[in-house]
Amino acid sequence: MAKTKSEPVTKPEPAKKQEPVEKSAPVAKAEAATTAAAAAASSAASDGASKTSDTNATVSLAKSVSTAKTASAGKTKVPNLQPRISKQQAPTAAETAADGNGSGRITWKLVGILGAVAVVLGVFAVVAAFKPGADITNTAWVDEGATAEVTKAGTEAIETLYTYSYETIDQDFEKARGYLNDAKRDEFDSTADTTKEAAIQTKTATQASVTDIGVTVLDGDRAELLAHMNVSATGDAVAQGSAATPLSIKMEKIDGKWVLSDISDSEG
């Protein structure tokens, strides 16, 4: 019976001894340990996160305090800078004002000169109006047309009388005679030859200009004026200088034309 001897093949007991495979307790313990470790790690992570959050909060607060201090510091610096800026700007404003004042001075100087001339002319009229013994028929600066007419005639008469050239002296003297009345023309002619001879010898030429003039009396065909004249001279084409003098003149209207009846230095 050879078939009965092969029974050892059917012995399963050695295979059953592999029961340790079915032992899951160590694995469970390992899993439990792993789970516990994970939980501990999670807890630690949570605690760490909490601590980190607290730390961040602390840092945030610290930064806020630092920022607040910086902002506060910034605010304290502004008042200190503003006065400096103002002090630095002040000279600029002063310079601007000075520049403005500079141009202003030129303008006001011109205005002042013109104003002074107007005042002087106005004073002439006032003095004439309130002068003791003044005729109430004085229309100087009242009759504007007549005042302007005699003012122009007086200016032309003075400038023509004192302007001449040795090259054209005969024509110049003849023109001057046209602004003189008979008496004044005779006086002029009495010295004309002497003046002419001296002018030709020295090659003299003169140029007169009236700088200011005003009517003090205007009564019908009679007028009185105050004037200021500048006269420059050259000899043989070389400048000889200039002179300024105030004049007092009287004029009368003859045949519709204003002519000089008297002329003198108003300071004399």
UniProtKB/TrEMBL annotation:
Keyword Transmembrane belongs to the record: yes
This protein's GO CC annotations: membrane
Subcellular location: Membrane
Keywords recorded for this protein, A-Z: Membrane, Transmembrane, Transmembrane helix
Main location as per UniProt: membrane
Bias type Low complexity, positions: 23-53
Transmembrane segments: 110-130
Domain of life: Bacteria
Skewed-composition ranges (Basic and acidic residues): 1-22
Region (Disordered): 1-57, 72-101
UniProt-listed PANTHER family: OUTER MEMBRANE PROTEIN RV1973
Protein name per the record: Mce-associated membrane protein
Organism annotation: Rhodococcus opacus
Taxonomy of the source species: Bacteria, Bacillati, Actinomycetota, Actinomycetes, Mycobacteriales
